[in-house]
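Hi everyone,

Forwarding the result from last night's run.
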Amino acid sequence: MMRQYQALIRHEGNDALFRAIDMSVVSTLENVPLHIHVEGLRGTGKTTIMRAARSVLPPITRVKGCLYNCDSERPHCPDHRGLDRKTLKELGTEACPMPFLEISASVKMGTAVGSLDLARITNRSQPDAALLPGTIPQAHRGILFIDEINRLAETAPEIADVLLGVMGTKPGIIKVEETGLPPVTMPITVSVWAASNPDEDPGPLEDIRKQLSDRFDLGVGTQRPSDAGCVLDILRDCQAAAPGEHSRKAQEFLAALAFLDEVHLPWAIRNVIAGLYVEFQLESLRAVEALQACSRLTAALERSREVRLDHLAAVVPLVLKHRVDLSAMEKIVERLLESKDDNQDVAGAKPGPQGARAKSQDKEAKPAGSLHRMVTDLRNKLFPGSNGEGQGQPGAGNRRSSPGNDHPGMSGMGSSSASVPLTCPPLLACPLAKLRSDEVLRGEEELMSR
């Protein structure tokens, strides 16, 4: 039995996934896809949460009977694009559930993209050759869920290629080809939600298809609950949400969408984001675009009319989890603290390596503001045992050093370089010929005699 979304227990190990889903649903309603890839060990609830979110998705309005979910204001499908307003008005509109469709790791190209409509071509009274849209085109303006996407990337590279086109731009592009029919290319707006377990074969998605991994705006980790009380709550009968909870959640999404237009994104925040990109040599511009979009969505969900640094700090681990290594992440967290400390940075002073070096020489006490507390908590969560002095160099690593267990903030199973005890000899190796005779051991007996 599928658990109801509003009845699911939210805890520290899955809270980031709930926040990512909130952002993605609001962004999809705005016709801007926001792609999520959640990683975690089996049994941490990642697939359950994503599938359960289907019950709280708000409805959409489409051209009546359109299999491609055409927006009457922006018809895009082969059947309705190019029609004038009068004709579209005559066709009418209808409300329908926001699409939530799923493809598996073993999906076939025809099922995912489209195929010849056999029902129409075998119609004896009026045979007609036409395309039947696949799962991906039918998910337009909604959610496409892919479980075990790492397996799909390995076993179905042709589907991964299709996803690269669907997720490469916003909106994306999909091309449907069938022998005997002219190819059809159309824009598509769909948020891809995917799940995988990096500890199982064939391994992390970024090691199999890094290009596809980078298409995801958010990389989210899930972990088991650490509190026994939370486990007790999960063990209780939590199958049913209170009456009206699902529609209330859908209304929250619509209210956040309406509020989004009122959210102001200051240039100072953009300046900080641009500085992070240059200073830490982030590989993909998609990362900074996602930082900006998700900061704005977070502000809208909190009903804040202006994006603040704490909104940016809240999304940094989600956006950069699959794009930077631990040392770079730690430096970025430190950089956000410095941006808050230096009011001139936030007011618009140009950030960059020189500014960062200047600040690193100034180790005055940090103000106890809300951002400082939040980022300090974030740093402690990401790097337990860290003294706050980063060990890595900015840009020293733009990739995860060890997938799966190296992001404790998301998986809770890693450690920073600062917390790893030093066990190697402190001195450099020396040639035997340069050692004195009393410094050389020739066997266990000689060791015992000393």
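The CA atoms of residues 95 and 278 lie 45 Å apart.

Cheers,
N.
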